[in-house]
Amino acid sequence: MAKLSYLDAIRDALFVAMEQDDNVFVLGEDVGKKGGVFKVTEGLQEKFGEMRVLDTPLAESNIVGTSVGAAMMGKRPVAEIQFAEYILPAVNQILNEAAKVRYRSDNDWNAPMVMRAPYGGGIHGALYHSQSIESLFVSTPGLKVVVPSTPADAKGLLMGAIKDNDPVLFFEHKKAYRLLKGEVPEGDYTIPLGKADVKREGDDITVITYGLCVNYAIQAAEQLKEEGYEAEILDLRTLYPLDKEAIIKAASKTGKVLLVTEDNLEGSLISEVSAIIGENCLYDLDAPIMRLAGPDVPSMPYAPPMEDYFMMNPEKIYKKMLELSEY
Amino acid sequence: MLSHKETDLTATDLQEMYKTMLISRRLDERMWLLNRAGKLPFVISCQGQEATQVGAAFALDKEVDILNPYYRDLALVTHFGMTPEETMLSAFARGADVQSGGRQMPGHFSKKASNIMTQGSAVTTQIPHAVGASYAFKMDGEKRVSLATLGEGSTSQGDFHEGLNFAGVHKLPFICLIENNKYAISVPTHLQYAADKLSDRAIGYGMHGEQVDGNDPIAVYKVMKEARERAINGEGASLIEAMSIRLTPHSSDDDDKYREADELAKNKDMDCLESFKLYLLDEKIIDEAWLKAAEAEIKDTVNKATKAAEAAPYAEAEHALKHVYEEVNNG
Amino acid sequence: MTEITMPKLGESVTEGTIENWLVKVGDHVSEYDPVCEVNTAKVTAEVPSVHDGVITEILVQEGETVDVGAPIYKIEVDGDASADETADSNNDEAQTEAPVKNEQPAMPKQQGDRRLSPVVMRLIGEHNINIDELDGSGFNGRITKKDVEKYLADGPVKKAEPVQQTAVKPEPVQAPKAKSSNESGESIKVSGIRKEIAKRMVQSKTEIPHAWLMMEVDATNLVNLRNKHKAAFKEKEGYNLTFFSFFVKAVSEVLKDYPILNSSWDGDTITVHDDINLSIAVANEDKLFVPVIKNADERSLTGIAKSISTLANKARTNKLTGDDMAGGTFTVNNTGAFGSVQSMGIINQPQVAILQVESIVKKPVFIGDMLAARHMVNLCLSIDHRVLDGLVAGDFLKAVKEKIENLDPDAVSVY
Questions:
Q1: Which of A18, A66, A75 to mutate against chain B (most B CBs within 10 Å)?
Q2: What values do phi and psi take at C36, rounded to 5?
Q3: Which residues of chain C have pLDDT under 50?
Q4: Cβ atoms of residues B72 and B46 within 8 Å
Q5: pLDDT digits (tens, 9 = 90+) for B226-280
Q6: Which domain holds residue C400?
Q7: Cβ contacts of B160 on chain A, cutoff 8 Å
């Protein structure tokens, strides 16, 4: 096992997947010669050539649309959308096309493809380089949505996404790229999609979250331990379809549930998680379901004080965890 | 009409082309009857565009080439392998419908075994799909092309530009065929685009562009055949604009009141099925007896397809829950 | 062996009822562990042990009432097995005086938030747990799921918290008992305070020959006067200038002229009180408190309004002390507050009369031969006919009526 950053783990997954299967190819803006604006695909073009690591024109709908076509022909495209918010021009191709190919053809056609997109804030990216836009996609049957929280998960889930026979949206937290480091299994390491993961055991409160917030929640849990409370942390990993069984189990374990997202609160993914818990766990609840999220404003501002105000951090999570623990 | 002698089309080919146009027209007419009889909720027609579709279809290799058709392409998909019974099963939304298992409206063609990619209703999304398929062919060095068809209205969509631009950049084995029937539902061409010819846009995409008489199946065949040759020879994509006519309203839900009576009458005079028949008779490729036999055979086929489809069961209601994702049998 | 006696819980209290023993013979208790719950006139308190030791005998059974100073249990004090002394717990000033000294007794923590979460409800039902045996460790003493799990694992834990103060206790929520087949509806265990209220009501109603009279009073001047000043008053004083304050003020003044209504009956003698201490009835959910405005006749209207506001707030927040409720000589009841227009009050023994102030209602009234719209209010007086007769009661009521009707609506000040 090697200690890799979240970013290196993603690149490693692409490397291994492309070596394993010639049908896997990478396309997107600046992914080839430059190796991506975050350098995720650095070195891939040298190894696999221009056809399989393709610098596309600046047109997101076409990036996704051609991926759908190539995938239907048996390729396994891994498209990169440079920033998550730039995926919006491709939404018709994602929701109306990719997600419906299998269903509308009665299982005759399928589109095994991955769309990677860096999401999230805290990197002085302002309104259009900081967004969490997963809530737009997490009610689309036919599409899978994945957000890894650790380097090992980033590799395993990306390889799982590439091998999956349905379209997968894969959001990577851009602040996590170089912030998070951890042991990552070498070679073929695949985590099947659809399973949440308990990242920390505890019996006082349950925190359910995903992405970078998992790391923040673990930091907060260590601080909370000093107050005598142990937090269970469930990492959703696959945001759609949700692992309902794991959510119900984790929520029922302590009866005190805190849901955390970096997205703004209204209509966010955790609202659906809250509904699942409300429907299934009433007689196991020991406190109101609590939600912690960004404010309901259009996006994360540029100036540091406003950015900090919006952005999730361990301290905000700790405070809410303590409140729930003492409830 | 272009002389078939300027092409490699044989007499048998021409007879087949006519029969494909004829069965498509008769199937279409039957579906309108069934709609007006209250048996089908919806029909969208190929009538008037069969020449373009058949000319294009015969220019391709249906064994290897890929189709991304749009909703009027009944004659195109029929040549590629969509059977009359399959067309009727789709029209009746029966469980055995190969296109969608009774999920989609008629006209949303799909059949993997016949290289027909599945289609949605939001227009023009098929362009990047076809371009993506042709990129796969290029990657694998395969001598295959992908064809996307669309109406002239769809050329206003962003995906048209994005897809053609990409195909031009990579000289992909891709053909874009605009079936210009001059109406996007009710909106005429002068409100859709300002260019003389849509095919002129090819210059902007760095590809071959050509306009052709869509009522002449032989002319369309010739142009499409050349486009395919260029494609598999690595010379890149083509944008073909076939000038055609729409003999019916947009769909069974449209009243066509936005068109003048004399325009509709003039269209009837230009009916490609009639003109191609006259050409074949003139060229002695067919005769009245052949025609009579063909009509009888096709009528029988359409009757049988209608009866079989109508008698076929719907899918179970719970089939609505199937095939959202790959269903892995872990048992 | 040490004998422990009934403590004097509050200045005017002379006896106490053992509501509940929290220990049994043989139990070892530590100093400040609660031993029993004692109920006195409208105050319930947990009585703590004053020694470390083993309970050897319980002398007063639950429900029994004994005088202050009567022995209630015996304890063998640790390290003093052979000693046989009688200690009077009243000597321990710190404990018995605490409630009087402390204006706002703190709530015992576990008596706080008794709302139960769904999972706690479920666990209590499944394991047939009496929630009174549970300590709440959550916010405001809420019983958490963990508290129940701990209880199930370790068994009941002795309440460790010393209870030194006498507090007006909120009623614990009782888990509904299982229904028997011939019962319908929910059974509610009668609380100590409710029992005390019931006892006193029955006693008053059966012992006192109640007589009743009502007078209709024109309160139009009062309404105009009060409306003129209420906004400024509220802004200046921070609490409301209520109609009720005017009636309390009027009664306190009139009582000086009719002292016999400000008296008490004890069988052999009628004691006419010097002080005019007006009890006012305040309801708090299922409980009824009668705090007292002391020397009401010496207070201004503002002082009375302020007293009413303070006492009502204390009642609503369970902060009334025994002292707040001691020494009443006459009761004024604001029945109009809940919309009543006529009611027959039960006299608050050993007082001899109670005045009910009803709702003020706008009505057509003849003034001379003319009909006029006037604000009318009924004053209903219940009297102890052993002490008072109709004549004096009528005169008293008429005097109150005149005070109210003769208020000057244009007075520039209510002070």
A1: A66
A2: -155, 160
A3: 83-111, 159-181, 183
A4: yes
A5: 999 999 999 999 999 999 999 999 999 988 889 999 999 999 999 999 999 999 9
A6: 196-405
A7: none
Last residue of a domain, one of C38, C73, C98: C98
ipTM score for this prediction: 0.95
Residues of B in contact with A79 (CB under 8 A): none
Q: How far apart are CA C245 and CA C231, in angstroms?
A: 15
Mean pLDDT by 10 residues, chain A (327 residues): 94 98 98 96 97 98 98 98 97 98 98 98 94 97 98 98 98 95 96 97 98 98 96 98 98 98 97 98 96 96 95 97 96
Q: Which of C240-244's residues contact partners 24+ apart within 8 Å by CB, and which partners?
A: C240/C305, C240/C309, C241/C305, C241/C414, C242/C305, C242/C308, C243/C219, C243/C336, C243/C357, C243/C360, C244/C280, C244/C308, C244/C332, C244/C334, C244/C336, C244/C337, C244/C357
> Within this chain, do residues C88 and C202 fall inside the same structural domain, yes or no?
no
Q: pTM for the full model?
A: 0.67
* Annotation says B161 is catalytic: no
Q: Which of B18, B208, B250, B279 is catalytic?
A: B250
Nearest chain C Cα distance for residue A209, angstroms: 23
Same-domain check for residues C228 and C369 = yes
Name the residue ranges covered by the structural domains of chain B: 4-312
Closest to A285 (Cβ–Cβ): which among C119, C138, C142?
A: C119
Q: What is the mean pLDDT of residues B110-129?
A: 98
Active-site residue identified among A11, A129, A237, A253: A129
Q: Which of C74, C98, C122 is the last residue of a domain?
A: C98
* pLDDT tens sequence across B185-208: 999 999 999 999 999 999 999 999
Q: Name the residue among A203, A287, A326 with its Cβ closest to that of C117.
A: A287
CATH superfamily of B4-312: Thiamin diphosphate (ThDP)-binding fold, Pyr/PP domains (3.40.50.970)
Task: Examine residue A192 and say whether the peptide bond preceding it is cis (omega within 30 degrees of 0).
Answer: no
* C-alpha distance from A243 to closest chain B C-alpha (Å): 15
Residue C220 lies in a domain: yes
| B93: its two tokens | 């939304």
Q: C200 and C94 in one domain?
A: no
pLDDT given for residue C94 in this prediction: 40
CA–CA gap between residue C107 and residue C318 (Å, rounded):
9
* 3-class state of residue B10 by DSSP: coil
pLDDT attached to residue C113: 59
A266: left (phi over 0), alpha (psi -120 to 50) or beta: beta
Q: Is the peptide bond before C350 cis (omega within 30 degrees of 0)?
A: yes
Give C139's contacts in chain A (Cβ within 8 Å): 326-327
Residue with tokens 């029955």: C202
A65 and B100 in contact by Cβ < 8 A?
no
Position C206 in a domain: yes
Question: How many structural domains is chain C composed of?
Answer: 2
The residues of B whose Cβ lies within 8 A of any Cβ of A are 66, 68, 97-104, 108, 110-112, 117-118, 120, 122, 125, 127-139, 146, 158-159, 162-163, 165-166, 169, 322-326
For an interface test with A, give the residue of C144, C148, C149, C150 to mutate (most A CBs within 10 A): C144
Using a CB-CB distance cutoff of 8 angstroms, which residues of chain A are in contact with residue C117? 255, 285-287
CATH number of the domain within which C353 lies:
3.30.559.10
- Testing the interface with C: which of A229, A286, A326, A327 to mutate, by most C Cβ within 10 A? A286
Residue C274 counted as domain residue: yes
Q: Report yes or no on C188 lying in a domain.
A: no
Burial (Cβ within 10 Å: 0-12, 13-18, ≥19) of residue C65: middle
Domains of chain A: 2-184 (3.40.50.970), 197-325 (3.40.50.920)
Distance of residue A54 Cα from the nearest chain B Cα, in angstroms:
11
Which residues of chain C does A327 touch, with a Cβ-Cβ cutoff of 8 Å? 138-139, 142, 144
- C58 with C200, same domain? no
